[in-house]
Amino acid sequence: MRLDALAPTRAPLAELIAAHWRAPLLRLALAWAALLALFAADWAAMASQWWNISTYNHVLVVPAILAWLVWQRAEELAKLTPQAWWPGLVPFAGALFVWLLGDASGLATASQLGAVAMLPTVVLTLLGPRVAWALVFPLAYSLFLVPVGEEIVPALQTVTAEITIALTHASGVPAEIEGVFIDTPAGMFEVAEACSGVKFLIAMIALGTLVAHVCFRSWRRRAVFMAVAVVLPVLANGVRAWGTIFIAQSQGIEFAAGFDHVFYGWIFFALVMAMLMGLAFRFFDRAVNEPFIDGAAIDRARWLNPLERWNAKGWPAFAALLALALATLAWSARVHALEAPMPARIDLPEVPGWMRVAAAPAWPWQPRAGGADHRLYGSYRDAEGRVVDVAFALYAAQAEGREAGAFGEGALPSDSEWRWHSPTRAADDVAGERLQALGEHRRVAETWFRTGEWSGTSVMHLKLLTMRDHLLLRAEPTAMLILSAEERAGQDPVVAVADFRRATGDIGEWMDRAGGPG
Fold first, then answer.
1. Can you give the pLDDT at residue 385?
2. Whole-model pTM over 0.70
3. Is there a single domain that holds both residue 276 and residue 361?
4. Second label for 320, Cα 20 to 30 Å away, from 143, 385, 386, 420?
5. Other CB atoms closer than 10 Å to residue 407's CB: what's the count?
6. For the chain, how many structural domains are there in total?
7. Are residues 157 and 130 in the same domain?
8. What is the average pLDDT across 173-189?
9. Which residues face 177 on adjacent strands?
10. Residue 7, CA distances (Å) to 2, 4, 10, 11, 490 in order
11. Residue 230: pLDDT band by 50, 70, 90 thresholds?
12. What is the pLDDT of residues 84-111, one digit of tens each?
């Protein structure tokens, strides 16, 4: 007897996959590989955020979670027969359009959302509605790959500051609050962006969604659990901030800061998460060995029968997916080639009642306008001695690295001593923001944008108009104007900025004159 005849044999990977699944899975793998290659820039940007930004570090485990969720359904999925489906091209085209909108406007969140959404829509197209229904939760959960959340940081800072000051007063510590700054006998504390609790909130939402699906069957219990998973980290972050302030009153700020980083930064929120799971454990109503899906029931589901009249052949559907993706990229290339004509030079126009003066801020402040084709900085003073600083930037196009109003750009550069303090609102309802540096220097800033015939303060409105113009292959210059005044004794900077703005006449036309040919 030959010894090798007794050796154990291992089935090749293909033999472990049901025969009727092999060709569809091959097409799916090829389609995903093609999309990852074609939109590699977006995936690389997301991966960089997952790895380098602590707010999104939890996303690094989401791919493993997705693989586990699919693996748990593998046995039941084998009972289904995948079938390509023409209508799946509609949501796929929608994902491509979302990507194009983000790519055309420089809105990374939209382009990344589109890139991620392409993957589940390919599953629907190449494997059909029955398989997609069996995988509906993993496909939906894949949206957690999109790094979002930084947009709510100012709101969370404000909420955390309000919770903190309430607890500080309740604990008998005298304190005053201004925006996100809390003044106590031990010193001034800032509820900074890193203290907003956004990273824990986003991670808790992702974890809560997974737990709600895996551990509960009742939709009511799932809803209650998710509500607690959202509220608890916000409240816990307020307690964390209060604890730091309370400890500082007796142990000093340096000790409190170190304690906050070690205990609150790593242990406290782990305990909060454990507490949430401990409280919810007794209400879990899904058995550990209960299948996530019933493949046979899905295979028999009559409500899916009418959808299958539009079934397709696998390779033609694959080719249609690829053609749509390539057409979208060709459109994107034309959009990025758009450049509005720029004047040789620009200059700040005169303002009635105000005269140009040399800038002399109490603390250095210079807004950022990365990628702008022209930049101007100046200062104006009126008869009352009020000074308004002006920053003007003109862009030939809006794209990655040259976006008016992008994060870290504008009135509050991310690497400066200036910090966001609180929102402001002028008498004519124009929104602005109060900034603070080193705890003593303050200024108010209003940021305006101009494109085409529109002028306003909304970054989102600007993004929407940029999307429209790019989709129509229309090149329009974009201008950004920042009006700012320091907070000085006897002078309200909000009023000073508003008075200067009114003196310009129509702010949009004034910006046009600044960006006109010299």
1. 92
2. yes
3. no
4. 143
5. 13
6. 3
7. no
8. 83
9. 182
10. 10, 5, 10, 13, 92
11. very high
12. 999 999 999 999 999 999 998 888 899 9
